[in-house]
Design goal:
Pfam families: Methyltransf_11. This is Class I SAM-dependent methyltransferase. One of its GO terms (biological process) is methylation. GO terms for molecular function: S-adenosylmethionine-dependent methyltransferase activity. Helix content is 43%, strand content 21%. It has 234 residues and is α/β, with parallel strands linked by helices. The protein has one domain: Rossmann fold (3-Layer(aba) Sandwich), CATH 3.40.50.150. Strands 1, 2, 3, 4, 5, 6, 7 and 8 form an eight-stranded mixed beta sheet that branches. The two termini are 25 Å apart.
């Protein structure tokens, strides 16, 4: 995985949410959470695994929606932040945080209803193998996102501390076919790159987001969007 040493540092974990999901980044956080909830539907009593759960943004949200959740991440510092969030949200009894490797998931076959992997595939050195492992432990579906090759993200990708693996739609389609996964739906979003939203106050980011979404509804604009949210079934 790319950037493991950087990602596992204590100071990175402490500043992670503030740097990415404050200011205009609140709009990114809101959209990503909506994408996950829209894909999953009702979650009451569902068993969900989140891969690369980081500071628990999605893990805690899924527990609040009634799911039994396991959040797995390679960074002990990130997991500690997640446990604090769970305690504040009073959902500690319905979720568990584990340190582990997404390439060798410590669970039996068909153990979860759903596997979620957000902000993960852009770091994967062997995406087909990771997807295969997620399929192994899932009974029903997998939800994940990818950053797109033909998008504004490609302009500044080289400057990111962890880099990014960028995907074309055809590459993801090949990954799904190799793992015999059925595409249920894919949503594309964010013509304007994430970095701009994070750099400006929410008051300025909101009108930009309105324009971004309007352009996103135009024909063929999906080919230029920065991110895709994938919902697939076994």
């Amino acid at each position: 995985m790319k950037g493991q040493e950087w990602y596992q540092a204590d100071d990175i974990a402490q500043e992670y949410d503030e740097k990415r999901f404050s200011r205009g980044g609140q709009l990114i956080d809101r959209r990503e959470k909506a994408a996950v909830l829209d894909a999953l539907g009702p979650l009451e009593d569902q068993d969900v695994l989140e891969i690369a759960c980081g500071t628990g943004r999605f893990t805690v949200m899924l527990a609040q929606e009634g799911a039994n959740v396991v959040g797995l991440d390679i960074s002990a510092a990130m997991l500690q932040q997640g446990r604090r969030k769970a305690k504040v949200a009073d959902v500690s009894g319905t979720l568990e945080f584990l340190r582990g490797d997404a390439g060798r998931l410590p669970f039996p076959d068909d153990h979860f209803d759903t596997v979620v992997a957000m902000r993960f595939f852009h770091l994967a050195d062997d995406p087909a193998a990771f997807l295969s492992e997620m399929k192994r432990v899932s009974r029903e579906r997998i939800v994940f996102d990818t950053f797109n090759r033909f998008s504004t993200r490609s302009v500044y990708n080289w400057a990111l501390p962890m880099g990014s693996r960028l995907y074309s739609k055809s590459e993801v389609s090949v990954l799904l076919a190799k793992n015999a996964l059925e595409l249920v739906d894919v949503e594309d979003d964010f013509l304007v790159p994430y970095g701009l939203y994070r750099a400006i106050p929410n008051a300025f980011a909101s009108p930009i987001r309105t324009i971004d979404r309007a352009i996103g509804r135009l024909p063929l604009s999906d080919h230029l969007m920065s991110v895709s949210y994938w919902n697939v079934r076994l």
